[in-house]
């Protein structure tokens, strides 16, 4: 999922060339954008202060620039010691090219490092039953936001089932309020609806089969049901007029919700902070509501399942020296999600670190209710599926996003969507 990271310029600090650290040191490439960048930098600085003989040099990149730079560096054997990755399909490519270290045995030898983290964070770090990346930082599930004032105006309650959601569409339209906001031009925002509908209709096995490359996986009856339901919602007028010309990067979809022009919005947990900052008293005043995605009547998926971004991930270059690998593993074990790091993700980013028991740190926070909701949704989910555009190989993901645009534009049928995706490249 193309989560906005920030618009900071490409920056670098303390490296001795592409992917390289100073003599005897290790290197890491990180993403820019506040407050995440500041938290990451503080962690690296604290690690270096405590390890004068095993330094870690950081280089900083914008999101899109990084995606190009890391693939070029890996191909030229100039990758950093520690590789930032979203896990899933991209990590799988690295594994199959022999570019990243298998960390399974290291985790077994460091049980506390694994046990402290949400179990749901490890799925996107695992390839063929082996762990190739360290889950870190925070969790960002997709949630259904709603405007409490707008719901009170029409005397409605947030939907707990798909039929209840569909029943709200004419109610809000009659009141001159768009039932749902959507930045459809960005495409990945529309994808979030399908991620949940596939899961609620048929459980995680539906997408698991697709991700595994099983033939005709997109034609699963639960998948066709989900594709049909989303077009039913579009035809009923469920989304704001002109949703396919609205971009998520501009946060215009969020503005529709907090200004009361739309009643609901399905989006990532990361939007909470921007709505709090840009929405006036919408969040501080208690007018923002949030809930899990509705259950689908007759579906076999557990309504407690979550989708989104289970974690961020760091992999270890298989081409690093033994000394560099030792520094990286020390960083993984001592600097990531220690007390100071976990506190920073809560207090500076308003997010939930993937640490079991992190909710004990929420007391006194003005966002305690939100943080507890995200913590419970994420840590208790029977399955936490990674966003499809990260779980699938990049080439497949681009075909997916193009077909989602056509599906939401009603220019192809569910069956045509499934046929197109079944024929898409799987690697």
UniProtKB/TrEMBL annotation:
Q: InterPro entries from the xrefs?
A: Bact_solute-bd_prot1, SBP
SUPFAM superfamilies under this entry? Periplasmic binding protein-like II
Gene3D superfamilies attached here? Answer: Periplasmic binding protein-like II
Q: Name it.
A: Extracellular solute-binding protein
